[in-house]
Amino acid sequence: MTKRTWVLKDVLELYALPFLDLIFQAQTVYRQHFPAGTMQLSTLLNIKDGGCPEDCHYCPQAARYHTGVKAKKLLSKEVVSQQAHTARELGATRFCMGAAWRELKDRDLPAIVDLIKEVRSLGMESCMTLGMLTDEQAQALKEAGLDYYNHNVDSSPEYYKEIITTRTYDERLQTLQCVQDAGIKVCSGGIIGMGETLEDRAGMLVTLANLAQPPESVPINRLVPVPGTPLENTETIDPFDFVRTIAVARIMFPTARVRLSAGRTTMSDELQALCFMAGANSIFYGEKLLMTGNPEMVKDRALLQRLGISVDQLVNQPQA
Ligand code: SF4
């Protein structure tokens, strides 16, 4: 099948559909590509907190904002291993590790390679978010067994400049290219509710969908305005507008994991259920999602059970 090229107009037409028609279409697409009522659970661990030199206006880890986040060193392999074991026992099949770095430094590469190998040895999929990468670094991560690399484009090319000034949209796209060239799957999405227009939301999805190889995982975050960041007083968006973006993402990325990511703590059970109906089939599951709270695991499990949604099992076998 030839790959579809998306244009902004078509995406805006999806956004303009009556809400129930859009949800119906998204759920139909979902059922063509995934078993109905299933969810993939990922756990995210911050392996290096705070002190980031970038200026992403939403981020409490940026050193320049006064958010109370202290810069710490990279976590040891022992700590990460213990956390990954716990995540696996609690049902997570993917373990994501995030470091608040502008880019990966070659001096940190050996430690990162060790962490990837450790997580893979548990039979879990591994994902890293470490900032910008070079071709050589991406290749080394691939050789270590990395399954996914997360690098969000955040918003449209136009609105991105309002949110981040310390690196360009093109640099983000270059890193995605390095990752794909190395044969690592891409996890890339954005944040909704930063003051962007509908065209910006559509533009972000068009950018990602028109990559030579669209992302295999698309996280859709709802902004959590953190005190001390430039976006602290941003108004919360209409929940239905958020659900619309999930549904449009599902239609545009039919085979990808569409992940309900940061901001889930601020959503009611009913709103989360609507997001699942709209085609979200992956959630972050754990005590903390980067620096924002994440609903407790027990509550998550109870919600999935109430909705009759089953969770995915490990695809890789743990090494003996
Ligand atoms: S989002 Fe990432 S790159 Fe931007 S300030 Fe936060 S940790 Fe740094």
Explain the overall architecture.
The protein is an alpha/beta fold and 320 residues long. Helix content is 39%, strand content 16%. It contains eleven helices and twelve strands. Strands 1, 2, 3, 4, 5, 6, 7, 8, 9 and 12 form a ten-stranded parallel beta sheet that branches. The chain is globular and about 50 Å long. Mean pLDDT is 90; it is low at 289-294. Iron/sulfur cluster binds at residues 52, 54, 56, 59, 61-62, 100, 131.
Short characterization:
The protein is built from eleven helices and twelve strands.
- Helicity, as a percent range: 25-40%
Structural classification: alpha/beta
Content of β-strand: 15-25%
Radius of gyration: 18 Å
- Please provide the ordered H/E string of secondary-structure elements: HHEHEHEHEHHEEHEHEHEEEHE
Straight-line distance between termini? 40 Å
Q: Which ligands are bound?
A: iron/sulfur cluster
Figure out the total of helices.
11
Total beta strands: 12
- Describe the biggest sheet? 10 strands, parallel
Shape: globular
Low-confidence stretches at least 5 residues in length (pLDDT < 50)? 289-294
Mean pLDDT: 90
Topology:
Blueprint: H1 8-15, H2 19-33, E1 38-48, H3 77-89, E2 94-99, H4 109-121, E3 125-129, H5 135-144, E4 148-150, H6 157-163, H7 169-181, E5 185-187, E6 190-192, H8 198-209, E7 217-222, H9 239-252, E8 257-260, H10 269-277, E9 282-284, E10 288-289, E11 292-293, H11 297-307, E12 310-311
Parallel strand pairs: 1-2, 1-9, 1-12, 2-3, 3-4, 4-5, 6-7, 7-8, 8-9
Antiparallel strand pairs: 10-11
Helix pairs in contact: 1-8, 2-9, 3-4, 4-5, 8-9, 9-10
Bound molecules: iron/sulfur cluster.
The site of iron/sulfur cluster (SF4) has 8 residues, from loops.
